[in-house]
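Late entry, evening session. Most of the bench is empty. Finally got around to the prediction I had been postponing all week. Sequence below, unchanged from the version circulated by S.P.
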Amino acid sequence: MSLHATPALSSRITKPRRKSGLAALGLKRKTSSPSTTTPKQLSLPSEPSTYDDGQPPSLLTNLNLCDIPQTITSIHTHTFSALPNYPSLSSILTSRILNHRRRLPPFISLAHLHAVSASATSVDREIFALVNAGVLRRVVVPNRVGSVGEGVVLVEEWRRLVEENGGIPADLKEKYVTSLTSPLSPLNFTSKDREILLSTGFLTCNTTAPSAPCTLSLPNMGLYIKLVSDAKAHLLKLLKQNAHGTMPLCDLAERWNGGVVDEGDVRAERKKVRGEFQGVLPGRTKRWKQFCGMRVEWVVEECVGAGLVELFETGSVGRGVRVV
């Protein structure tokens, strides 16, 4: 007797298997070869539109440039973050931040537009057409250390600054707006008009001679140049703290924010209830004391357009930033 045929094994009760519906009808189940099978792919949510939900155009989210004036407005309105809701900024610092933001001119560098666009050539072509149509105005910043270079301004925003200025007479405002909307028209200002415009910052001259040629300018451009230049220098300093000048974008944002915990964080709320240390207050960080709450994404885009840094895919932790 074989060892595989024991009384216990032979005495088992076996039940017939239940036939499937296809087998009962005499049909065969269709099988597909491994070469023809395609893995099921999960549907990813579509990227949000540039202007539907108020998100700024950003090269960090691969958004395409749709319209130059609308993009300029969106970039300008998303330069800074909103003030924190919880009491972390002093009243003096809050007023200083709001006044500094209000005094900044509506200037967007050409490098920033190139960074968020799919094609720099198409951007330059559209800007050229809008300048001839009187919608945009080019502003050239003289070459200096940390200069932002050339940029554009919406004529509507420039006109709003002129009309809101109380130190310019009404007739001079009308003459200035006419010269602003007509790029090819000569500047016919009297000596008194030139003194008023020079004192308010809407006109600039190379020399103090009465016959020196003058050009239209925006007031408080020095504040803008210093703020952007210091922000770019600080971003490069954070990147160069690593050995290879490379850092994931999430880590760079954390260092830019100074280790401040975002509002709505569950762990931060629990620590707040228990009375424990919740992290550094925003009012003690350089982002709010020196840069008035500037967003790190905005600074990265400015640096990418200037050729100072570049973005790359890490493959594991999202996008990274590298010093060029």
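Two things to note before I forget:
Residues 68-222 form one domain.
The mean pLDDT is 79.
Will write this up properly tomorrow.
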